[in-house]
Amino acid sequence: ADTRLAGATKAQPAAAVLVRAVSAPAFLGTVETSVKACRQQRQPLSLCLLELDHVESIADRLGEMQVTKMLHRLQPMMHAIIVDEGRLIQVDDHRFAVIYEGAERQPAVELTRQLVRCVRDWSGEQASTLGHSFTFSAGVATLAMPPKNFPCQELIDAAQRCMNGVQLSGGDSVKSIDIY
Question: Which of 134, 152, 135 is CA-nearest to residue 143?
Fold first, then answer.
C-alpha cells in the first residue's frame, strides 16, 4: 500500500482517470447501487468524502481556475492509490467521494489516510510553484452489512458528519464511524 502512495505522487495525468462532477441525485443513485450490490454479495461498504480544506482562502489567493487545475492534476494520483479498492467520484468542485465496496472500516480508513497524505505531500512539493499548499479533510462511514431498505442518504450524512468534525479540528485528517 505504501508503494502505491510513493508511486502515486509520480503519477501522470491520464484522460481516462479523470472523473467529472456529478449531481447530488446522481451521486445518491451511485451510492444506492453500491449499497444494493454489497447487500446482495453480503459484503461491507465504506463511503469516504474528501473536501479541500480552507477552499475559500485558497480560491481567493489562487483563483478558482487554478484550484480546478490543481484538483484535476491530483485525480490521477488519488486514483493510483485506490485503483483496485474503490471508485473515485468528483461530487462537486472541491469535494470527492470514494466508494469502497467490500471494504470494512479499517482498510477504508487506511486508504483514505493515504489519499490525505498524498495530497499533503504533493502539495508540499508544489507549494513554491503554486504559492500555497493545501490539504483535504476526510470522513468515512461504513456499513458492516447493508440492511434491506437502508436509507442511503444516512451513509452520506454519516460520512459528512465525520468530515465536518475533521474540518472543525483544523483539517488534514480522517475521522470515521460504523453505522448499523
Answer: 152
pLDDT tens-place string over residues 43-90: 999 999 999 998 888 888 888 888 888 888 888 999 999 988 999 999
Give the residue among 88, 71, 64, 44 at the shortest CA–CA distance from 136. Answer: 71
Residue with cell 474528501: 50
Bridge partners (DSSP) of residue 78 are: none
Contact 141, 162 (CB under 8 A): yes
Confidence of residue 21 (pLDDT cuts 50, 70, 90): low
Give the single-character DSSP code of 79. H
Q: What are phi and psi of 17, to 5 degrees?
A: -85, -30
- Stated as kind and residue range, the H or E segment containing 33 is helix 24-41
CA 175/CA 160 separation, integer angstroms:
10
Q: Which helix (H) or strand (E) holds 20?
A: none
How far is it, in rounded angstroms, from Cα 28 to Cα 26?
A: 5
DSSP 8-class letter at 54: T
Answering whether pTM is above 0.85, one says yes
Considering only 1-10, 66-75, 128-137, which range has the smallest mean pLDDT? Answer: 1-10
